Amino acid sequence: MSIKKFRRSKNRDWWEGGTLHESTLASWPGPDCTDSQRGNKIATIADYIGLMVQMPEIYPAIVFQNPNELLALYVVPMLAGIDNLTGEGYDDLKPIAIETIMFTMAAQLEFIKVNPVAEAVNEIKQEKLRSVLNETKS
């Protein structure tokens, strides 16, 4: 895919001007949407990825050198995943905020390589286990 295909207007690049941040999955335009709606979805996803990039301790897997890589490696997979959820069989997900869907999709796509909370909990559990094992050896 070429970025030029997604250019939004003379004054905006494809990653600018998303307006779907407050939407739910029910109001997210499906895969058969207009070009304008598709551009809005892409720009909204790019905004969320921009937030993730600002948290490298949680999202270390998000690395790109240019807008083409951003689009191909991150935006298009997230768009496909979210669009898939707008189809049949996902009615129970429709009221969920798109923000929640975005961060869940990032985890599904393994953009999150480290879960600091789970890692910290595992370290505490391992330390407790070691201490119990040391006590039983004594």
Please provide a written account of the structure.
With 138 residues, the protein is an all-alpha fold. The protein has one domain (3-137). Helix content is 51%, strand content 0%. It is built from 4 helices and no strands. The chain has helices at residues 35-53, 67-85, 98-108, 116-137. Residues 1-8 have low confidence and may be disordered.
Which structural class best describes the helix and strand composition? mainly alpha
Put simply, the count of helices is: 4
Number of strands: 0
- The overall average pLDDT, rounded, is 83
Strand content: under 5%
Flag low-confidence runs: 1-8
Outline, from the CA principal axes? elongated
User: How can the largest sheet be summarized?
Assistant: none
Distance between the termini: 64 Å
Which features does this protein show?
138 residues, mainly alpha, 4 helices
Question: Can you describe this structure in just a few lines?
Answer:
This protein has four helices and no strands.
Helices, strands, pairings?
Blueprint: H1 35-53, H2 67-85, H3 98-108, H4 116-137
Helix pairs in contact: 1-2
